[in-house]
Design goal:
The chain is of the alpha/beta class. It has 6 helices and 5 strands. The protein has a 5-stranded mixed sheet with strand order 2-1-3-4-5. 42% of the residues are buried.
Length: 143
């Protein structure tokens, strides 16, 4: 498995171990990890601390994002996709979109390349979480 997707999966597992939602993300530039993060909505009582948002927060200010790519264990939602589009991140690599189809078309319509790896490990991780905590999952996706 790609080392960067593995890092995102590690972040997702860390978030779940903390009692949160298992979604992880990493930002990469030139083959080097710039930042990592995971969903912290539960841990920080935050409305917007999705995995991608935590990762980008941890990256701090960047001169540009046009030479980066972001990895996420789950297809980004519209909030995270909007940030990806706003920051002009050209490529998103996703672990899976079966449990949540997110905002793929939105990102692609704004020129973002989206690669869905459809990893069974990511699907299983989310399915286990959704089965264990359906109310928390529905809150996270605003259902």
């Amino acid at each position: 498995m790609d080392e960067f997707m593995q890092a995102a999966i590690d972040e997702a597992r860390m978030g779940r171990a903390q009692g949160g939602i298992p979604i992880g993300s990493v930002l990469v530039r030139g083959g080097r990890l710039v930042a990592r993060g995971h969903n912290k909505r539960v841990q920080e009582n935050s409305a917007i601390k999705h995995g991608e948002m935590d990762c980008l927060t941890n990256a701090g200010r960047q001169r540009t994002y046009r030479d980066t790519m972001i990895y996420s264990t789950l297809m980004p939602c519209y909030m995270c996709a909007g940030t990806i589009v706003q920051f002009k991140i050209p490529k998103v690599v996703v672990g899976e979109s079966r449990t949540f189809d997110g905002a793929r078309e939105f990102m692609e319509s704004h020129g973002v390349e989206v690669v869905d790896l459809d990893l069974q490990e990511c699907v299983d991780m989310m399915n286990e979480f959704i089965a264990a905590e359906p109310a928390l999952w529905n809150e996270d996706i605003m259902e």
